[in-house]
Amino acid sequence: MEMVALSQDLLQLEEPLARSYLTIPVSLPGLIFVVDSNDRERVNEAREELMRMLAEDELRDAVLLVFANKQDLPNAMNAAEITDKLGLHSLRHRNWYIQATCATSGDGLYEGLDWLSNQLRNQK
User: Where's it mainly located (predicted)?
Assistant: First the structure.
C-alpha cells in the first residue's frame, strides 16, 4: 500500500521545485498532511495547497489525516482552529480526521496513525 505524507515545510520550496516533489504517479488511498500549528502567517497557504492537492485525480478517493503539529508551543492553534482555517468542514464527501500532535514527544502520532489504519482497513 502506498501513502503520501506532506509537511507544510515542503511548501517553502520554490514553486517549480515544490511541484516536482508533489507529483503523484498513482492513485493513493490516503494522505497525511502535517501543519505547523504555530505558523499563523502561513496557514492560509497551507489551506490553498491542501485543497489543490485534494483536487488531483490521484487523491480523489484518499482519506485525509491532518496532523496539527507543534501543539507543545504556547501560541499554537488548537485542532478546532486549524480545522476552521484549513476549511476541513467543507470536505463533505471526503473522510478526514485532524489529530493534535507534537512530533518531538510523539504525542498524538499513534492515535492519528491508528485512525488512518482503521479507515484504510475498512476500505478493502
Answer: Golgi
